[in-house]
């Protein structure tokens, strides 16, 4: 395991500025809002902010204030942040991001998690925090070979935690990180103390009778899931079938990379009009810039190709997974398209020991509602005993 610091060359910053300044813009249908995609006027203004006001070096310095490392696992370079708590009895915790996020989603909650005394918590709330980048994403990418499916990533995470000397730990995930965390519990259940998820889509069983007695709120969750599958998952279908094709545009055009990502932050976050209603503009651009500077949009898309059979856009759905062998905690945020319904979750997750439902927040919970997110992780840890 080697220490790592981000150091994007000045030449890359100059190249980005040139590409942004020379963007060839399309027209648009007037008064479409977000219904046909990212609005032209909004994106032009955001691109100008990226080019003239966003300070990458400040973002880089902030990330580099936390210890980062790289290591080789199963032939792949794995980048991760590793921050140990000052509390000697802290619980090890591995946090896994998804798409279109990155390890940056968790940067602002590292201090509350590792040093709870300074952030309204108690010493027993403390975690040692490990935040890896999924193979193919950010500084764990690009990957150069096929086969990095959920099971292989889960095994890599088990090896990473073992290599760090953690014999007993908690796994947390949202989006793709949810399935990786569940898979990690399956392959390393002797060492995973519990799994905490803030994304758990629970489609109803085939029998219509299963819908009887659902609350209005639960029907709303099913509606959000249906809307995601029908109207918001085109990116998933494309990345799971032709990741190489979309990689050319995303790697060549920072504006396409920005639009490709910012659309999902607008749709899946607890925002009224624009994603900045929920997440700061500089944080959004830091995340996009990492995809751009590492040229990993294509290798990140390959994840969907490798796991196409288990996606909601797959022609046939795989058999349900075996019951989770470790305790589970679930945090439900109302603007996430993958909100869990407990009665549909329990047959597959019989070991639910903690369940929270919040009245604000969306898909990117650690960014949108960091205090609620941290508080729920602490509550889950207490539920584990």
What would your notes on this structure say?
The chain is α/β, with parallel strands linked by helices. The protein has a 9-stranded mixed beta sheet with strand order 1-2-3-5-4-6-7-8-9, with helices on both faces. Helix 6 links the parallel strand 6 and strand 7. Helix 1 runs antiparallel to helix 2, helix 8 packs across helix 12 and helix 9 runs antiparallel to helix 12. The longest helix has 16 residues.
The level of helicity is 40-55%
State the major sheet: 9 strands, mixed
What is the molecular shape?
Answer: globular
Count of discrete alpha- or pi-helical segments spanning 4 or more residues: 15
What string, H for helix and E for strand, traces the elements in order? EHHHEEEHEHEHEHHHHHHEHEHH
Strand order of the largest sheet: 1-2-3-5-4-6-7-8-9
Spatial extent as radius of gyration: 20 Å
Arithmetic mean of pLDDT: 96
Low-confidence stretches: none
Strand-pairing-aware structural class: alpha/beta
SS elements, strand count: 9
Strand content: 5-15%
Distance between the termini: 32 Å
């Amino acid at each position: 395991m080697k220490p790592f610091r981000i150091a994007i060359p000045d030449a890359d910053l100059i190249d980005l500025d040139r590409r942004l300044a020379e963007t060839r813009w399309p027209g648009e249908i007037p008064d479409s809002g977000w219904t046909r995609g990212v609005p032209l006027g909004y994106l032009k203004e955001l691109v100008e902010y990226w080019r003239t006001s966003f300070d990458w070096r400040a973002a880089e310095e902030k990330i580099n204030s936390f210890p980062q490392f790289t290591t080789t696992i199963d032939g792949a370079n794995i980048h991760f942040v590793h921050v140990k708590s000052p509390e000697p009895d802290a619980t090890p915790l591995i946090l896994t991001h998804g798409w279109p996020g990155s390890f940056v989603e968790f940067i602002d909650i590292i201090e509350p998690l590792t040093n709870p005394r300074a952030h309204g918590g108690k010493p027993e709330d403390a975690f040692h925090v490990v935040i890896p980048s999924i193979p193919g994403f950010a500084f764990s990418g690009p990957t150069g070979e096929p086969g990095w499916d959920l099971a292989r990533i889960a095994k890599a995470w088990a090896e990473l935690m073992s290599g760090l000397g953690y014999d007993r730990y908690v796994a947390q995930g949202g989006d793709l990180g949810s399935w990786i965390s569940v898979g990690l519990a399956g392959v390393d259940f002797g060492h995973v103390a519990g799994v905490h998820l803030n994304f758990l889509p629970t489609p109803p069983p085939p029998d219509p009778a299963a819908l009887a007695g659902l609350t209005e709120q639960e029907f709303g969750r099913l509606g959000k899931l249906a809307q995601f599958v029908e109207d918001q998952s085109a990116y998933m279908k494309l990345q799971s079938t032709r990741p190489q094709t979309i990689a050319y545009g995303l790697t060549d055009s920072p504006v396409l990379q920005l639009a490709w990502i910012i659309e999902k932050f607008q749709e899946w976050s607890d925002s009224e009009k624009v994603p900045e209603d929920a997440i700061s503009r500089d944080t959004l651009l830091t995340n996009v810039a990492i995809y751009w500077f590492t040229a990993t949009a294509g290798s990140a898309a390959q994840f969907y190709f490798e796991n196409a059979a288990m996606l909601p856009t797959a022609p046939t759905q795989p058999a349900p997974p075996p019951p989770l062998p470790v305790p589970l905690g679930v945090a439900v945020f109302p603007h996430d398209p993958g909100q869990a319904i407990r009665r549909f979750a329990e047959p597959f997750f019989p070991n639910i020991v903690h369940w929270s439902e919040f009245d604000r927040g969306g898909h990117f919970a650690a960014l949108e509602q960091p205090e609620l997110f941290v508080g729920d992780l602490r509550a889950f840890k207490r539920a584990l005993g």
